[in-house]
Input
Amino acid sequence: MKLSLHVGAEFSLENFSLSQLIFAVKELFDNEGLPGFLNVFLKIVEQKLIQSGIQCRHCSVGSEGKVHIHGNSERTLRTSLGIVKLNLIRVKCQACKKTFVPLNQILDLDKFDRKTREFEKLSIETIAEQSFRRSSEHLEKTMGFPTAFTTLHRWFSNTKSIATSVKHRVKTIIADGTRYKKKIDSQGSNRGEVKVVIGLTSDGELVPFGAWTRASWNDLANYIKRENHASEKIKFKPIAELLVTDGEEGLIRAMKKLANQHQRCLFHMTHEIGYLLKYKDNASQKESEDITDELARLIYLQVPELTADPLKNLEEKIKIEIEFNKVKKQLEEFIKTLKYMGYTKAKNFVENAKSQLYTYIESWLKTGDQNPKVTSLIERVMREIKRRIKKIGSGWSEAGAERMTRLILLRLSQTKNRWEDQWKSKLGTDADIKLTFLGVTSEI
Output
C-alpha cells in the first residue's frame, strides 16, 4: 500500500530564509501533516476491518450477521503527533439493534478517552520531573497544543500504570522514610511521612516493593510477610539475606523479621554521632569532628574481590580477619573513652549499634559475598523522592504522595526497564507495523 502526501507551497525568493522554511515545515507537519496522515491511515484500517467482517460487541454475532452503517462518531485525541480529529463509522447490528464503532475494537482506547496511551505515558513521565503546572507549560511548548494541569492531575490520579508488588525474594532489602508537607489534617498538622521499601537482587537490580503514607513500619512488615508467606502451616522463610537500615529503632524492630541478618548504615552512624556529640553531649566542633573521624576509621573496612585462586583468597581472608578482630577491640576501647569523657548519648548510640556494624565483614568472611554497608542506593532514591514531593510541590494528599513516590521508584528501576515493561502490553509495542519512506516528488 502506498500513500501520497500533497503539500502546497507559496514563497518569495526575495525574502527566502532556510531557518524560516524549517519553521514552516515543522509547523505544517506538527499541526496538520502528521495528524492528517494518522487520520487517513486509520480510515484505511477501518475499511479493511469492515471488509473482513465485524463481530458485534454486544451480542457476539460474527461476520455472518448483518450490520448497517448507522452514522459517524467524532472523536478528538491528544497524541504526541498533535491533536488528531477522527471521524469514525458507527454501525448498527441487525440482530440486537445496538450500535457500536468497529474501530474501537482494535484501538488501545477506553470508552471516553481523549488521549492516546502513548501520550498518557509521556505526560506521566513529565510530571515525575516537575510540577503539574510546569508540566502543562512544557507539554504545550513541545506538543503545540494545551493540556491543563488539572487534566494532568486527573490522569495521574486515575492511571493504573503505577502499580508495585511486594511479592519478591531478593538478596538485600532496604527501608527508609522521609517527611513531606501534606494537606492539613483534622488535628491541624501538615506533617506527613512516606515510607519506602526497595530490594536488590544478586544481579544488582533495583526492585521496588512500594511506598506507603498511611501505615506504620510494623503494619508494612506484617503485610510484606503475609504476602510472601505461602501457608501459616509452614515456617516463614525470610525474603532477604540482609536488611540495611539507617538505625531507626521502630523500623528495625518491625522489618528485621524479613531478613536473616541486619546491617546498620555506616554513613548514618558517622552522621548521627556528630549530631549527638554537638547538640546532646555539648562537645566542641573540633572534638566532635575528631571523634567522628575515629569512628569512621573503625567501622569502614575494605574487603577485596575474591579471585579464582583459593590460596590467595585464603590469605586475604586471614588478613581481613586479623584486622577485623583488632578493630572490634578498638571499638570497645572507643566506647569506654566516650563514657570516660562524659559523652553519654554518643556512647549509648555506638554501644547499641555495635552488633549490627560489621555484618558485611562477617558475611564476606563466611561466603565471600560483598553486601552493602551503607544505604547509598536508597539515599539516591530518597534524594529524588525528596526533590519531587518536598521541593517541587507541597500540600499533598496522602494518596497523592504515595502514588508520586511509587512512580519515581518505577522510573528509577531501569536495570531491566521495569517502567517500560509496565506499558508494553498497554501500548501494544509488539504490533507488526512497518512504515517506509519512499521519497518526495514535486510538480511546479
DSSP finds 14 helices and eight strands in the chain. The mean pLDDT is 86. The beta strands are 67-79, 82-93, 99-100, 172-181, 191-200, 206-212, 240-245, 259-264. The CA atoms of residues 162 and 403 lie 7 Å apart.
